[in-house]
Amino acid sequence: ILNVEQSPQSLHVQEGDSTNFTCSFPSSNFYALHWYRWETAKSPEALFVMTLNGDEKKKGRISATLNTKEGYSYLYIKGSQPEDSATYLCASNTGGFKTIFGAGTRLFVKA
Amino acid sequence: EAGVAQSPRYKIIEKRQSVAFWCNPISGHATLYWYQQILGQGPKLLIQFQNNGVVDDSQLPKDRFSAERLKGVDSTLKIQPAKLEDSAVYLCASSLLDLEAFFGQGTRLTVV
């Protein structure tokens, strides 16, 4: 994998559903993996930064895992709420401190 | 703590015109980034500064785009002349150690 790829591209869920997204990134020269949340008309906001294989981070109902050997990260949202509706971006820092963003997953949570 | 400030928020120009965007990073952040985010795509790094020196400008279309960061603080990004495909959100971000980046609200450029 040469680029950072995210799936799905968009996701529609009902309030209360749990959901997860995938981020695939180059496993060579890995330095750090970031997740950002980007609400419409606002700035992207950092959720997590992970550096070690097996890292798990949690913030409220949102959690993330990291597998640097196979080059993927999962973001989980438990019990989705309408306010979780946003675009979730992942970004990979590679050797040379270069950051590459994925195209994002757009989440729509219906009340 | 004040965040990253960008202006203007919105700009509409005709193709072949010029436009400039301004960014004021978080105080003390040595690293400053300009990203271009075209609808449906992820943010693409245009240029990265460390203080007032350029670290990476490999994806900056240098025939029409230019950026500077005088005195290692504020930065301006210029497009001259603009093309229709330059329509995008231009995000400025800053970071302390090139890890977590803090973003401004962006400038939405529409070229007609």
Describe this structure in words.
- The complex is a heterodimer of chains A (111) and B (112).
- With 111 residues, chain A is mainly beta.
- Chain A is built from no helices and eleven strands.
- Chain A is globular, with a radius of gyration of 13 Å.
- The N and C termini of chain A lie far apart (37 Å).
- With 112 residues, chain B is mainly beta.
- Chain B is built from no helices and eleven strands.
- The model of chain B has no long low-confidence stretch (mean pLDDT 92).
- The chains are: A mainly beta (111), B mainly beta (112).
- Chains A and B meet through strand 4, strand 5 and strand 10 of A and strand 10 of B.
Any key phrases for this structure?
heterodimer; A: 111 residues; mainly beta; six-stranded mixed sheet; five-stranded antiparallel sheet; globular; B: 112 residues; seven-stranded mixed sheet; four-stranded antiparallel sheet
The mean pLDDT of chain A is: 91
The whole-angstrom Rg of chain B is 13 Å
- Give the topology string of chain A: H per helix, E per strand: EEEEEEEEEEE
The end-to-end distance of chain B, rounded to whole angstroms, is 37 Å
- Give the class of chain A from helix and strand content and strand pairing: mainly beta
Secondary structure class of chain B reads: mainly beta
Sheet bearing the most strands of chain A, described? 6 strands, mixed
Mean pLDDT of chain B equals 92
Tell me the β content of chain A.
over 45%
Cα gyration radius of chain A (Å): 13 Å
The chain pair forming the largest interface, with residue counts per chain, is: A-B, 22 and 23 residues
Beta-strand percentage range of chain B:
over 45%
- Helix content, binned percent of chain B: under 10%
Total DSSP E strands of chain A: 11
* Shape assignment of chain B: globular
The first-to-last residue Cα distance of chain A is: 37 Å
